[in-house]
Model the fold of this input.
Amino acid sequence: MPRFQEILQLVGQLNYTWTNTESLLIYLIAGLAKIDKETAIIVFLTLNTTRARIELVERLAKMQKTPPACREAVLTVTSKLTRQAKLRNKYSHCIYSFDESGTHGSTQLMRIVDGKDDVKYGKVEALDDKEIGRIQDSIDNIKEINKDVWSIVINHSFPR
Done:
């Protein structure tokens, strides 16, 4: 399979795994806020960024009424999720370039970095074997986070 197809499959799997796991924040919102699942879905969908959703879950976990063991478990899982968000965001917000054979690829980030006296944009990075390994590792980590969230939901009897 050409590298082009391999990258697209991996990025698709990364996004699918991410979206599936991010949606589990609904159950953490429901359990921590002591609301039903339907209300938690509305809250989740009203917050339009992953960062906002994670911050809400973390703030709910930090409330005094949250048992310490639950707080620690939730904050650990949100910390892991935040770390994985960086790579996922990179691949969701970049331009892909491949050579004519579809073998050698690179990404160009669609981000502006303001310096003191200049502006930089579009950092280019190779899509090599090392980077493919990072994507696969991220997918594997997100799958583990998914399991961690379900453990919290089950162990603390959160609404499902």
Remarks:
- The longest strand covers residues 94-98.
- The CA atoms of residues 65 and 111 lie 40 Å apart.
